[in-house]
Amino acid sequence: MTQCGWNSILESVTTGVPLITWPLYGEQFYNEKLVTQVARIGVEVGAEKWLSLVEDDLEDDGKVVVIKEKIERAMIRLMDGGDEVEEIRERAKELGRKAKRAVEVGGSSNNDLRGLIDEFVRLRESCIN
């Protein structure tokens, strides 16, 4: 289960596991859509409102954000092993494999980082000379 912070999503993607999404605020709701509707590697618990950090803005005294039945439904949905879940699991595994290839020598992330380092070295050398 993830709150849909970008680092949490990346950690899950690189391990190739499907996600249960529970965004709390900010960009996390957009990240949830990326996970569940674009990449289709997770299921939602159904959070509909931002969690406010200001006490006066909290509904129901801030005690309930998502009811337990929604969490239970998301967990059962992801664990039931149906065709939809198998597709979600396979997409998550494939995305994990792609993420690992990206950071290997010759992978896109590795090459981009190497290019950035080379650019810094060239910039430093041009400033020294």
Describe the structure.
This protein has 129 residues and is mainly α. It has one domain (6-104): Glycogen Phosphorylase B (Rossmann fold, 3-Layer(aba) Sandwich), CATH 3.40.50.2000. It contains five helices and two strands, in the order H-E-H-E-H-H-H. A two-stranded parallel sheet has the order 1-2. Helix 1 packs across helix 4. The longest helix has 21 residues, at 83-103. The radius of gyration is 20 Å and the shape is elongated. Pfam families: UDPGT. This is Glucosyltransferase. InterPro entries: UDP_glucos_trans.
Task: Give a short overview.
The protein has a single domain (6-104), classed as Glycogen Phosphorylase B (Rossmann fold). 58% of the residues lie in helices and 5% in strands.
Strand content: under 5%
Identify the strand order in the major beta sheet: 1-2
CATH structural fold name:
Rossmann fold
The count of strands amounts to 2
Mean pLDDT: 89
Total of helices: 5
Q: N-to-C terminal Cα separation, in Å?
A: 52 Å
Structural class: mainly alpha
Element-by-element helix/strand order: HEHEHHH
Question: Which parts are unreliable, with pLDDT below 50 for 5 consecutive residues or more?
Answer: none
| Broad shape | elongated
Task: Please identify which CATH superfamily we are dealing with.
Answer: Glycogen Phosphorylase B
CATH class: Alpha Beta
Question: What does the radius of gyration come to?
Answer: 20 Å
Keywords: Transferase
Protein name: Glucosyltransferase
Pfam families: UDPGT
Organism: Kingdonia uniflora
